[in-house]
Structure formats: structure tokens, C-alpha cells
Amino acid sequence: MNQDIDNSLIIQFCDFVTNKLGLYFPENRYRDLTRGIISTAKDLRFSSPQECIKWFISGSPSKEHLDSLASNLTIGETYFFRDKKVFKLLKEKILKNLIQERMIQKKQIRIWSAACSTGEEAYSIAMVIHELIPSRIGWNILILASDINTNSLEKARIGSYTHWSFRDTPESIKEQYFTQKGKNEFLINSHIKNMVTFSQINFAESPYPSPLTQTNDMDIIFCRNVLMYFSSDFRDKVVNKLYQCLVNNGWLIVSPGEAEHAKYAGLKSVRFTGATLYQKQLSEKDELNSSFTKKLILTQKDPIPLISPSMPLDQPLTESKSYPSPPSPPLTTTLPSQKSDSQTDDNIDVYQLINNDQLQAASNILLKKLANNKPDGKEMALLAKAYANQRNLGNAKQWCEKAIQADQFNAKHYYLLSTICQEQDDLDAAIKALKRTLYLDPDFIMAYFALGNVFRRIGKTADAKKNFKNAINLLNNVNPNDSVPNSEGMTAGRLIEIIKLANR
Length: 504
Known about the structure:
By secondary structure, this protein is an alpha/beta fold.
């Protein structure tokens, strides 16, 4: 195989890899990029790496092809309890305080190991949680572990490790949490393995924060030794989105070499003995904006009284199931930047404002429109989304319920309501709204998917599997490369993979 690749082709391919995978290869790493494409060309049976590059750049590579490329360009290097000082802080400070706080409030903890490689970091977190909360009855704990490399994720799911993964780990960890198989194979015990949820997340293309990827409302995010592989612009974008994934007072944990990047996202550096972590704290400006939003709602003329939806599920439909309103994607969705059929000349400026994260300005415009014009369910739903993306869930729910009152037969409004209820951790209300969604539109794929996720969260496995199966049955009739409505652009093929992974 001819391995001489023209430099101009390498430059083009570098841009492609950055756009599709988020990985940045400066000139001093062209050799690594070349090695990766040579391996990919062999895996995909191209006659030369040049032909492989040209095909990637000019064609439409599938997810499987991009996965193969990502696997050859990323090499995870990790081991259990890497950086003992960080895990000591996690156990003795961060988690200890969080558990004490949540014992009084809701018993929920959400942790994300981003770029988890072969799973050692995520399983280390699970062991710490197990030590602090041996009996987790009544607790809702999510340890999400993600990576772009599907080969690494598969190894992580299997949970089989060699001595190399324990090179700086106390022997007691091996004895307590692993079963030895052979001379150099250690299988992680099932009670720790089952605490971790693995998922492929591509920082360049996957939605986050989003309930779809379970990346919303995180208490702690580990994102260590990955930001260094991004360009400066893309790195800033990722850190800002990770900031949005955190709850207020949530923690972002990066490696010492990446600390400078965390500072620019508005995170406060908190110094401990031996390590510096970064905490999300609302600025004075953010708090003032939040107060101003509440005042607007209280003083704004109400176009209609707030009435919660009460349509019985067994009530026969007497109206046509024609829903002219725009799609209602999950919270934090970026609305299309181009004008769509559902965007009128009157509200295109609002869409642009929301796309530019000018949510307060968008809310103000919508409030004025709703005060001066006839109640419009579409505008009310749009206002609900704007408030939801500002984390003002109370007002988001209020305006969503008003949208339902204005247009009781719009399934998308109920779906939006269910998403807001999930954000508020009101799962009973979310289930009720999702059932109404499906009553109005039995082919609403994302409602089945969401209902499956909610049932899984509350331990109703049979109900979860039933709804996941319904979603897959509908997805099988969709082109795998087509986007699923109300899914933030996720393709049917990708959603099927996510559902299958959830049911493993």
C-alpha cells in the first residue's frame, strides 16, 4: 500500500476530522494522523490511504466508517484511580457533601465520565459511590461513561482488565471488586459494572446537554486528558457546553494541563490540597436576569388563565390529527438557523435570537406578542422552550400548559411538557404527558423512547422494554440515515443503536 500522502491532502483531511470528530491535528502531529488513516484504509479495504481520504472528504461516510476512523485516531491511556488526589477529594469532600445535601432533598446524583476510554475512570467512580452509599435503595444514581471510540467502549462494557490497569492501584481494590480469571485477567464484579451506563458521544456532533444523551443536570463531570486534542476554538465550545450540562454548584474536573481552558467558561476555580477543581456558580448578572424574568411573568398581562391539561385518555378524538405547529425538540435544542416552513416572517427574529443564545430577548419579544395578539399555541410553546433553555422551568411549564390549552390536540406540546417535567424530576407527570402524546399520535417515535427511559429510571423494566420495542418497530420503517422528528437531528440508525445499548 502506497503510504506517501500529499501534504495538501493531509491538510484537507485534518479539517474533515476536526469538523466530524472534533479532533485537531496540528502540523507536528501529521505523522499520527497519517498512521491513523493508513490503519483505517486497511480496515475499510481501500487500495491506498489517498483513496480513503478522498472518499471520506467527498463522500457521505456512515457512522460505522466514522467509528472506524475514530478508533484509529484515538488511543486511551488510563488506569484505575488515576490521580489519587482527585479521587480522595471526590470521596472526602465533593461526594460526601453532596450526599449529605441530597439525603435531605431528592436522593439523586448524576456524574459523567466524558472520554472514558476503556472504563477504568467510570468504574473507579462507581467504587467510590459504593463505599459511601453501600445500600442505594431509594437513590437515583447515574454514572454516565462516554467516548467516541466504539472499540474502547466495547472493552469497557465487557469489564475485563489486565495488571496494566492496576499499576497504581491498591491491591485491596482488586480483591474487593474483581474476580481473577487466569494469570492476567480480572473481571469487574457485576454490582459495580451495573452502576455504569456506557454511551458513544461525539463532542462534535452529539447533542449535549440533552435528555437524549442523559447529559443534562450533571452534578460532576470528569473530562480529563481530552481537551488537549481539540483546537482552541472547538475546546472553548466544548467547555462552554459542559458548563451548560452542570447544575448550579456542579463540578468540572479536568487534568492539570487543561486547567487554563476551564477558566474561560465562567467556572470558578476552587483550590484544595493537591488539586484544583472548577465549580459552576451563577454570577450576579445571571441571578439578576433570573429575577428579572420572574418579574416579567408576574407583571405581564396573561392572555388566558393557566389551566393544567385534563383531557381523559379514553376520550374519543373528534378533531383531525393535523398539527401545523413547529416540531418541539427536547430541552436545549438548537433551533434551525434557516427559515423553515413553520417559521413565519413574524417570528423568524425570535428563532435567530434563540440560536444565538439570546434567550431573554427572545422571551421578551414573545411575551409582547402574546399580550397584544390572539393566543397562539405555537408561540406559547416557543416561549416555553426559551424559558426551559434558561433553566426557568416553572415558567416553561406554565407556558407549555397554556400552549396545550390553546391547542389541545397538538401532541408535540404534550411531549414538550413531558420533557420539562423530567427536568423537574416529576416523573409521574412526565409519564402522564407522554401517554397523552401517544394517545394523540401513536407514531410519535421519540415519545416511546422517552417513556422507555422514564420507566427504566423508576425500575419498571418490562414497561421500559415495551416502549423501546415500539420505538424500534417504528424506526425500522425509517431510512437509517434520516433524522427522527423531534430528536435534535439524530438519525434513525443511531437511535436504534442507543436503544439496543440501553437494553443490554
